[in-house]
């Protein structure tokens, strides 16, 4: 949907999942380091709810793209013409996120699916989004083209980072990076909506002004900074709350990590394997 | 061969190998996790048959490209002119896959070839295919150009993924990804054939229509989704059949994998090395 | 600031940090291999001072860009026009390095921040610098465009290399590479200043001369060679001084490393994990 | 030197080193697996000779580029004009390979240089060669441009592969890949010489003919195939000779490697670290 709502909807979806991740991953990280093998049941249930919501969001997105008044209503080809291909492309994007959600669910429910498949499919979903956007933006005014193509940096970056999680699963740094990119993408969709389809009667942006393009490029960086701050804030909040809750029982968390000169992630992994 | 058969032939080759892989890799994966060190002899024989068929397919492809009525019949340069360079380029593509097949055979038969060389040569064969396609598509109508250049995403993606298998050999996720890309490539070759050379008298596609290009871009994503579904289906089938067969003897497979928070692939590898 | 000072300032910042790194990392490397777990307190204090200086430099950069006489003085939008976007873009670049400095400090001071986040944020800061430069250089004379766009190779190379340090933390080779790129970037900023804004009344360069562009391309390589030599020199100096200082107490350093055929970095890491 | 000799000289250098590597690496590989820790002294001496020859070749290249009759004779700037920048660029390429040779020597002679620096500098030398070629080929006839730019695939591929050896040092597959690329580069330089400057009075190639470009693209692939075959042949020869020599003393080599389903390179590395 080439209007404000068509950008606000996916933006909100990405923001909601991103904000949830910015709470979930710190929680998981501290939990793992504090005590082992508890809350697992709760954690698995939360993951399942998350996967369901992800699938649901995709379904809502597909239905919205198809059945808005000027949507294709599931008609693809009609009287020698393709019907509303833009909406169909958006449908395809949502569809891949939906598949990713279903795979997440299956990975949790069925034991015989190899770990990593969920990350691979998510990486593919993000890649497909970038791929479709890449071929999406021809024949548009410069600002429209630019504001959409900036998204490609985030999408291909996220795709590579998520694909790395197939090998380096449960790496907190990669997970936080993914989280920050997702929030970033969410706020950027809102920004696109505000720039291209000003909702409150604010004046239109001149789509050919070079200065606008230059500002938007810089604004893109600020959005990422904002996303970083949100992740950092939620990370700190989770830490503070966890510390408060646990203080009576003893400080399990404080002082765990010391900055040794040879404390590499790799060795952490290796010594982790000895403990098991 | 710039006609329907010239695309259906490699498409079928890729599909056959891809479908076989979508059965082989799950089979290997469950087999490894269930019991150790059995069926090895059978497995090695199957691998050998696969390598032979791969080489055979390449030979058929080369012969077809060279000796079709309008082929070059092994003439490369004739009266100051290069003869049928298109067919020669296709021959080169098949040739590299043939070399990859031969290397696969040698790796199985001769113990002193380092593991990983087979993957590297396969990655090179896929890269060469992409490389030749990249310089292949100039001076053609837009749709023809676009439909071929889309293939590059699959080819370079597959090439990187297969090259990773040099380091992370026998990683089931990378193997399934490779399988899905191969099936995808197979169905896409058929799609190219149907679009550019409609076989059953269906009307020609307008090669300059922007909407056709937009549809094809999206269609490309759907093909990948189809490939993913085929892999998932075959994976499930293999699992079901294996479970049925083994149930009398005890459930070796069910409940092996638990989703621990720190269950990384890396640690799996490491603990695997302890067991040996 | 599109003048000589505007390039000399960041150039000096990069040079100072780069030269300090070219001393720090060899020192850390020899220190780790000689004796274990000493000087840690001093080391941590030095790291903290470095992070503070990094943040300070960024603050100076931001203030300089904003409050030079022809700067924007924190005005972004004024009378329907964006104010001095060039300066704002430079401000954004400094800002990200400032955030990276703050994250470095926090990682040192607070135990619960996962190792690797500091590297990721630094990689992002370098990427953002490259990203903004990429969209920065349109509509300029060829030499100006070329001399700035050459910087992108260093920036994106550094960004990838620093991102690798998230996984392979404390790898001396990656650290030295990062150091060499930083010094390189520092000298290059000075070079840009001298070429585009000759400070001592030297004649202007012809910005459209193809030969000048060809020379600058080659000159860029020489700058990297210079940076390599500086790193090598400082590395040797640190080694010599350390050896002199320690000789009375016995030769801890000499003869530690032997070139075994199977002495891979990976095994070094692994045996390192056993020792802990 | 834009003539036949100017391409034959580096081509020969690359070929000589490449052919030597195609013998050295198999030798090292079999040697390591057969008996441990012998011949080390000889091996180190060979490595030293190789590094010296590499440096020597670079020196010859630099001298040839500078002091051919129409060379710059070390003059860079003369009467407001850059002197023979083409030759200076070639000099720079040789220079970096020379630095790489010196670093190789130092790594062998001095124990305190971290392993991996030699690979990093080699990767940089190859990258710089590619980088200079990339900006080298503007304003030339299409065939000239194309035949040089094809080289970039080999150079950037080799650069990435060599950089990987910083982490995965002594991986035989990466070493053989590097060897094949080097031989490939050597034969391709000869090919460039024959195409652009036919030495034996053969007719000139039409530099604007699309068919010639198409043939050269394919020919490039054949050269790589040739390089692969040379590496495979030398590998087999080394194996046969080693087996003959050792047969009296018992078959140390045969039957070492079995294709186990979970025999990953990673586990090989890990179990290797246990043995030490």
Automatic annotation (TrEMBL), chains A, B, C, D:
Its main location: membrane. It is a multi-pass membrane protein. Keywords: Coiled coil, Membrane, Transmembrane, Transmembrane helix. It is found in: Membrane. InterPro entries: DUF716 (IPR006904), TMEM45 (IPR042127). The keyword Coiled coil applies. GO terms for cellular component: membrane; trans-Golgi network. One of its GO terms (biological process) is response to pain. The keyword Plastid does not apply. Residues 32-59 form a coiled coil. The chain crosses the membrane at residues 6-27, 48-68, 93-113, 120-137, 149-168, 180-201, 213-237. Belongs to the TMEM45 family. This is Transmembrane protein 45B. It comes from Cavia porcellus. The gene is TMEM45B.
């Amino acid at each position: 949907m080439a209007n404000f709502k068509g950008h606000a909807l996916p933006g909100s979806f990405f923001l909601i999942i991103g904000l949830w991740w910015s709470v979930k991953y710190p929680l998981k990280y501290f939990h793992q380091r504090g005590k082992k093998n508890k809350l697992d049941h709760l954690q698995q249930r939360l993951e399942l709810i998350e996967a369901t919501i992800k699938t649901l969001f995709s379904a809502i997105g597909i239905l919205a793209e198809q059945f808005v008044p000027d949507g294709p209503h599931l008609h693809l080809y009609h009287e020698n013409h393709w019907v509303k291909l833009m909406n169909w492309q958006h449908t395809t994007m949502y569809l891949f996120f939906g598949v990713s959600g279903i795979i997440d669910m299956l990975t949790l429910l069925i034991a015989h699916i190899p770990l990593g498949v969920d990350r691979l499919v998510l990486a593919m979903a993000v890649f497909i989004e970038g791929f479709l956007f890449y071929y999406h933006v021809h024949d548009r005014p410069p600002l429209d083209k630019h504001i959409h193509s900036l998204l490609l940096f985030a999408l291909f970056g996220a795709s590579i980072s998520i694909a790395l999680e197939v090998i380096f699963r449960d790496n907190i740094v990669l997970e936080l990076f993914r989280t920050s990119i997702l929030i970033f993408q969410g706020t950027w969709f809102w920004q696109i909506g505000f720039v291209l389809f000003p909702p409150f009667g604010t004046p239109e942006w001149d789509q050919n002004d070079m200065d606008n393009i230059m500002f938007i490029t810089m604004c893109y960086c600020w959005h990422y900074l904002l996303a970083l701050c949100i992740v950092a804030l939620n990370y700190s909040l989770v830490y503070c709350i966890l510390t408060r809750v646990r203080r009576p029982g003893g400080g399990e968390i404080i002082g765990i990590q010391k900055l040794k000169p040879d404390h590499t992630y790799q060795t952490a992994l290796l010594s982790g394997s000895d403990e098991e």
